[in-house]
Automatic annotation (TrEMBL):
InterPro entries: DNA-bd_dom_put_sf, MerR-type_HTH_dom, MerR_fam. It comes from the Bacteria. GO terms for molecular function: DNA binding; DNA-binding transcription factor activity. It holds the Pfam family MerR_1. PROSITE patterns: HTH_MERR_2. It comes from Phytoactinopolyspora alkaliphila. SMART domains: HTH_MERR (SM00422). This is MerR family transcriptional regulator. The lineage of its organism: Bacteria, Bacillati, Actinomycetota, Actinomycetes, Jiangellales. The keyword Disulfide bond does not apply.
Length: 255
């Protein structure tokens, strides 16, 4: 690091300048410092906080991390960085990326399951219409009554109750849903995916609209991935400047 760089890094920042650089209030800067979201802040003999270029860089990194990883993950990662606990920070970072990967895989599976439902068209065979009791639905769908009861307990099916007898009765809509559940379970789809497919079918009922909604979710996941990539890049740049990374050179200014 040259003399001018050393002078710049040692220059004190007023809290108002730091807040203005990030577009936040001075109180927000104080909150970040107290919550461990900025490096430790020294104080003058008179009690004023002393901010430096490192705090300005940390603030840039923090804002990128919040935008990319959200408040659910970013604070834990950033606090660990400022504690010098790189292992915990990287572990939390991996969890954040893995969470997004799971979401992406779930949407992909839901889309595949939905296409399976559309391709199979379980309603193509003529079957009885109107309200059916559970035994009749069991025969029509080709599953045991115990399976239908289990799916009901999971919230997948919503049969009504027959007045007077209390027997379960399945409307045409619920019978179609039972067909869908049976089809997807035979295809090996897990219950969370089945639940998502049923939710889409119940809310829209229009295959093209379901496809559109799922495609929109995939695009949003892509945008979130890009934001996380940008945030992770900002984190790396900060660590490269101020922390010793395994296998890398010592941070600038280190002995």
């Amino acid at each position: 690091m040259g003399a001018r760089d050393e002078d710049a890094s040692a220059r004190r920042w007023r809290i108002t300048d730091l807040a203005r650089s990030a577009g936040v209030s001075t109180q927000q800067i104080r909150n970040y410092a107290e919550d461990g979201l900025l490096p430790a802040v020294a104080r003058t003999d008179s009690g004023y906080r002393v901010f430096t270029a490192r705090h300005a860089d940390a603030l840039v990194m923090l804002r990128e991390m919040i935008d990319g990883h959200g408040w659910g993950h970013a604070p834990a990662i950033v606090r660990a960085v400022h504690r010098g606990d790189l292992e915990t920070a990287l572990d939390a970072l991996d969890h954040s990326h893995a969470e997004l990967s799971r979401e992406r895989e779930h949407v992909r599976m839901v889309l595949g399951a939905f296409e399976t439902v559309v391709a199979k068209r379980p309603d193509t065979k003529p079957i009885p219409r109107g309200n059916l009791r559970i035994g009749e639905v069991s025969t029509v769908v080709g599953v045991r009554t115990s399976a239908l009861r289990f799916w009901e307990r999971r919230g997948l099916l919503r049969p009504s109750r027959e007045a007077g007898t209390g027997y379960r009765v399945f409307s045409d809509e619920e019978r179609r849903m039972a067909h869908v559940v049976a089809l997807l379970r035979r295809g090996g789809y897990p219950f969370p995916v089945v639940e998502s497919v049923l939710g889409e079918l119940r809310s829209t009922g229009n295959p093209e609209r379901v496809r559109h909604e799922l495609a929109a979710r995939q695009r949003e996941l892509h945008r979130r991935s890009v934001r996380r990539l940008r945030a992770s890049s900002a984190l790396y740049q900060y660590l490269d400047q101020y922390a010793a990374l395994p296998g890398g050179p010592a941070p600038a200014g280190a002995e």
